[in-house]
Design brief:
Elements (H helix, E strand, L loop, with lengths): L7 E7 L3 H16 L5 E8 L3 H11 L3 E3 L2 H6 L5 E4 L6 H10 L3 E5 L6 H15 L5 E4 L6 H11 L6 E9 L16 H4 L3 H17 L3 E9 L4 E3 L17 E3 L5 E8 L4 E7 L8 E8 L2 E6 L5 E6 L9 E5 L20 H18 L7 H20 L7
Parallel strand pairs: 1-2, 1-4, 2-3, 4-5, 5-6, 7-12
Antiparallel strand pairs: 7-13, 8-11, 9-10, 11-12, 13-14, 14-15, 15-16
Helix pairs in contact: 1-9, 4-5, 5-10, 6-8, 8-10
The protein binds alpha-L-sorbopyranose.
Length: about 400
């Protein structure tokens, strides 16, 4: 099967659940709204069940299918492998793809352990010498408001950073009868809320401030230890109905941790799937010597900004409507005020990955950056496991 155009970037994707559907949307949409130097093609979709992957390919717009990712990474009509699978397969697929000369986009978190992430990063560094590149899919940093936040910090508009405050609040597990999923099985997911959504907050905090986390103290908690087997996640096409039996939850339901950043800033983080009423509430606030910014994903087209250099009589948080053509990415979409959604961050992710590949530059977040997040996750788990510094009252 050959490309239909000269500057094609033929994509092979592994996995077609929530992230597979979202990444398919991004690959389809990016060339329609951005002038790209390479033209993504949805070439091959891989999944273990032949009938199911063919149905998914038809629905999501993929030309061909495979039932074995190993066959996919060896195909000479595929240029990039997009990994949308549970974390326990990220390392094997990414390393095989990079060694086969394929660019890689890998969903977050990079891996289920630092050891895996280190092997993936070594493979990415080696591949880059041959003009093969890799990116990890921390998509929230490509929400226009968070990209703007990064620019304001870079311009010095916040001054010296003092506080970072991050929460990622969901509630899809509040019901103790919500069924087991791979996300609750440590052997598949690596961790629970910590790595699934806490990783986003860690990446966003480091990205916006430009400051790496240097130390953490954490607490992990599991509220519900046994869940019904056989159901599907409600809200992702699942009814939650179960066919009997229970499984043991082996990951955290919630994580809270404090952090020390390079330069002396301190941070508090919270990630939970039990924040009743909060559906996908990712928030970040940064306080600096000259100002503050605050982002709330449930109001994702706005960025709150406080300029402490303003005279007191006019000081106050202003709401920046991040939909003007001057703002990151937004000029390629709708007129000011019409707003973007969750899916646009994934399209912007594709845009920047394709541009980096065409320019021969390292995409960001690179596997090296994602490895740093993995090390923070591991440090939090180590801290929580040793209960160090926890004073019992
Ligand atoms: C968890 O519910 C989840 O699907 C994460 O896995 C995604 O990374 C995040 O974008 C939305 O929430």
């Amino acid at each position: 099967m050959t490309s239909t155009q000269q500057n094609a970037l033929r994509v092979g994707m592994v996995g077609y659940a929530f992230m597979g559907a979202m990444h398919s949307h991004a690959w389809r949409t990016a060339p329609r709204f951005f002038d790209l130097p390479l033209q993504p093609e949805l070439a091959v979709l891989a999944g273990r069940d032949q009938a199911a992957v063919k149905t998914a390919a038809q629905k999501l717009g993929w030309r061909d299918t495979e039932t074995d990712w190993r066959a996919l990474v060896e195909r000479d009509d595929v240029d990039l492998i997009d990994i949308c699978t549970p974390g326990d397969t990220h390392a094997d697929i990414a390393i095989a793809a990079l060694e086969a000369g394929k660019h890689v986009l890998c969903e977050k978190p990079l891996a289920n352990s630092v050891e895996e992430a280190e092997r993936m990063t070594a493979a990415a560094r080696a591949a880059e010498a041959n003009g093969v590149f890799a990116m990890c899919g921390f998509s929230y940093r490509r929400t226009p408001a968070l990209t703007l936040a990064r620019r304001l910090v870079e311009q010095g508009r916040l001054g010296t950073i003092r506080h970072i405050r991050a929460q990622y609040l969901q509630d899809w597990l509040t019901d103790e009868n919500a069924p087991m999923t791979w996300r609750l099985d440590k052997s598949k997911s690596g961790s629970g809320a910590l790595g699934d959504i806490g990783a986003h907050s860690i990446d966003a905090a480091q990205y916006v401030t430009g400051l790496p986390i240097q130390g953490v103290s954490g607490l992990l908690n599991t509220f519900v230890h046994e869940r019904p087997l056989g159901g599907t996640r409600v809200g992702l096409g699942g009814s939650g109905a179960s066919d009997g039996g229970t499984g043991t939850v082996t990951v955290d339901d919630a994580a809270i941790f404090s952090a020390r950043f390079e330069g002396g800033a301190i941070g508090v983080f919270e990630a939970t799937r039990f924040a009743t009423g909060r559906k996908n509430n990712m928030r970040l606030e940064v306080n600096g010597s000259l100002g503050s910014l605050a982002f709330d994903f449930e109001n994702m087209n706005s960025l709150e900004f406080y300029d402490a250099t303003q005279p007191p009589e006019t000081a106050g948080f202003s709401t920046i409507n991040v939909t003007e053509a001057v703002h990151p990415y937004t000029g390629n979409w709708w007129p000011a005020g019409h707003g973007l959604g969750y899916e646009h961050g994934f399209t912007h992710q594709v845009v920047d990955l394709v541009q980096a590949i065409a320019d021969g530059t390292t995409p960001s977040p690179s596997f090296d950056e994602a490895l740093r997040v993995q090390k923070v996750l591991h440090a939090i788990e180590q801290s929580a496991a040793t209960d160090s510094g926890w004073q019992h009252v």
